[in-house]
Amino acid sequence: QHKVGAAIPVRKMTAPGAEPPVLVQYLVLRKDLSQAPFSWPAGAVVAQACHAATAALHLHRNHPHTAAYLEELGRMRKVVLEVPDETTLKELAETLQQKNIDHMLWLEQPENIATCIALRPYPKEEVSQYLKKFRLFK
Q1: Which long-range contacts (CB under 8 A, 24 or more apart) does 58-67 make?
Q2: Which of 111, 108, 113 shows the shortest CA–CA distance to 87?
Q3: Beta carbons of 129 and 123 less than 8 angstroms apart
Q4: Angle of helix 124-131 relative to helix 86-98, nearest 10 degrees?
Q5: Is residue 56 within 8 Å of residue 118, measured between CB atoms?
Q6: CB atoms < 10 A from the CB of 56, how many?
């Protein structure tokens, strides 16, 4: 949920002079899209993750974590996880919304199919509890 004009509190997470937190953008992609009966080509599935990632970065472009993440393009970290189906993806989106975790649920048009969730960049420890049951996308 994006609130226009809302102030975003920035917590000091590190001691003065210490390294800033490592920021990660998590993507959660539906595994079943690449399997029958969908059988989407790999490029189409990858495109869903790209759409979701771009949208999440754009929606949360004014957040300090997003700005910091984009300052050093060569150091961007993304983790792509998989869920078995659309139901699991939508359940995760609901959980993230309830916990006020900034994310984008990408809906492929015109079919309106939920395909991928992208979180804005976060310190890993702030969001890993909601994602630890999902494995890396293969």
Answers
A1: 59/2, 59/102, 59/104, 59/120, 60/2, 60/102, 60/120, 62/8, 63/8, 63/102, 63/120, 64/8, 64/10, 65/23, 65/120, 65/121, 65/122, 65/123, 66/120, 66/121
A2: 113
A3: no
A4: 140
A5: yes
A6: 25
Local structure of residue 31 (DSSP, 8 states): G
pLDDT tens per residue, range 15-74:
566 777 899 999 999 999 999 999 999 999 999 999 999 999 999 999 999 999 999 899
Strands 78-83 and 23-30: what pairing? parallel
Beta bridge partners of 105: 117
Whose tokens are 């226009």? That residue is 4
Contact 93, 114 (CB under 8 A): yes
Position 10: which residue type? Answer: V
**Res 96: pLDDT:** 98
